[in-house]
């Protein structure tokens, strides 16, 4: 029995709420449901009843999606956008098999804008994923800076990956075969930190039963990472300055200096200049540590990385978890993108850990996220699914499509531009031309 048109709309609305830009295919690879976001992303109204491989791949010589679907295998692939105003743009397609009573009955195809062919897309650099231009530029700087031996100060908020940058500097340098040592200057009281950092001789204090090298000596011919260096007590700042100036270290209880060959990379979430002005940090040490400053942007300034990081975290977590997550519901992604992320990437990973523990099923829903995300939604955020206004029939088809996408994006032009496959500038220009701005 054929479905009525209103039933098709209901299925499309439900699918869009759960999967965003998506196509639902039957076992014969015929398109049965196409969400409005999918049509907007493809640049045309998806014809129901058409062959999905034909619609997506056309006459292209390389047809990874068509070949994988026809063989019954899930696939992730990049394909050229079939049509649309933007040339040289690509779509990322992920296919999920739909099974009923262990029988394959169809496929769910998730669509995502993969940008221009010359944008480079996502990059992986020593444990860090990004598609943000600022972070990509930082990676290029790290590759250059690593070749020299100057001291580096990494500035960034908690959870942005400062130690990963320090490790990248070490692994890209000529010291890569030497040791990498890391110590948090805020984690120990002054007396213990002095011993851990500079080492001590036997009998230097109660409990010193043998000569023990400190982190500076242990990092000889390698790299020493001093995390939260702004928390280093003033009395130890003078000793560290001497290490930098003389390339020697004097352990606690010793008199003779020991030569060391070590590169210092330090990190802080505070402005060292402000600490100097407050007389909590030595100016001469700041200038020694801050020869090459590097700045890590916080996650809230690169929201485009949130879907990418979620995808990578989920890929790494799925094999070892009770729950197996296939994708994020649009409402969950919207909640993640609205969050301010004071804990940055570490907080994002923790939020996903929570979702794995609390939720069930292959789709990560808004209710699976920690309580603070629901509080934000209830207090000052727009609804996850905005009510549809009656379309203004006086608008052109293109204007109506843009208006509908803007409505679905809760008025967020950046998200609307992504859905439409446009840059923000192009979307703004089109809105002005069509009388929408």
Give me a quick take on this structure:
The protein has helices at residues 5-19, 36-42, 52-57, 64-70, 133-145, 162-171, 190-198, 215-218, 234-246, 272-277, 283-289, 305-317, 330-338, 344-358, 371-380, 397-408, 413-420, 424-433, and strands at 22-26, 31-34, 76-80, 89-100, 103-116, 123-125, 128-130, 152-155, 180-184, 222-227, 248-249, 258-259, 262-268, 292-295, 327-328, 363-364. It is an alpha/beta fold and 437 residues long.
How would you characterize the overall build of this protein?
It is a single chain. Helix 12 crosses helix 14 and helix 16 crosses helix 17 (413-420). The strands form 5 sheets. This protein has a 5-stranded antiparallel beta sheet. A 5-stranded parallel beta sheet has the order 9-10-13-8-14. It has helices at 5-19, 36-42, 52-57, 64-70, 133-145, 162-171, 190-198, 215-218, 234-246, 272-277, 283-289, 305-317, 330-338, 344-358, 371-380, 397-408, 413-420, 424-433; strands at 22-26, 31-34, 76-80, 89-100, 103-116, 123-125, 128-130, 152-155, 180-184, 222-227, 248-249, 258-259, 262-268, 292-295, 327-328, 363-364. Helices cover 40% and strands 18% of the residues. The radius of gyration is 27 Å and the shape is elongated. It has 4 domains: 5-119, Beta-Lactamase (2-Layer Sandwich), CATH 3.30.450.20; 133-296, P-loop containing nucleotide triphosphate hydrolases (Rossmann fold); 300-380, Helicase, Ruva Protein, domain 3 (Orthogonal Bundle); 397-433, Orthogonal Bundle (Arc Repressor Mutant, subunit A), CATH 1.10.10. It is of the alpha/beta class and 437 residues long. It contains 18 helices and 16 strands. The longest helix is centred in the N-terminal third of the chain and has 15 residues, at 5-19.
